[in-house]
Amino acid sequence: MPANEPETVICRFQVRADAEQPFRALLRVHWPTLRRLGLVTEDPPQHYRAVDEQGRPVYVEIFTWRDGRAAQEAHEHPEVAAVWEPMAPLVEEREGRRKWEFPHYRRLDLSA
């Protein structure tokens, strides 16, 4: 995959039931921080909330990295770490799934 193409990431977070408010506060500043640093496209993020089979909260955030290098740059930036590090204790592993997942996708053109 070419590193200069945008990559959409679908972030899935298994949020602890007692941690929804602090998690939402961090999620609220997540994309604006990435945007200010030039790491994501101008396309606004999408946010979703669901509950799993036991009624526990699951959040999804969808946004597009500027390119294939942007995620690595984010991992090295202290302003991003200031958002990501406090998220870690607010999410939990469940039913054999990781507490958070970040698969990256490239847009397909199926019109042909």
Your description of this structure?
The protein has 112 residues and is of the alpha+beta class. The protein has one domain: 2-Layer Sandwich (Alpha-Beta Plaits). Helices cover 29% and strands 24% of the residues. The protein is built from three helices and five strands. The protein has helices at 20-36, 70-75, 78-87, and strands spanning 7-14, 46-51, 57-65, 100-101, 104-105. Strands 1, 2, 3, 4 and 5 form a five-stranded antiparallel sheet that branches. α1 runs antiparallel to α3. The longest helix is centred in the first third of the chain and has 17 residues, at 20-36. The mean pLDDT is 94.
Task: Fill in the keyword field for this structure.
112 residues, 29% helix, 5-stranded antiparallel sheet, 3 helices, 5 strands, alpha+beta
Instruction: Output the radius of gyration.
Output: 15 Å
- State the total count of DSSP E strands: 5
Number of helices: 3
Q: What share of the residues does DSSP label as strand, in percent?
A: 15-25%
Unreliable sequence segments: none
- What is the typical, i.e. mean, pLDDT? 94
CATH architect. name: 2-Layer Sandwich
Elements, N to C (H/E): EHEEHHEE
**Which structural class should the secondary elements be placed in?**
alpha+beta
The profile of the biggest β sheet is: 5 strands, antiparallel
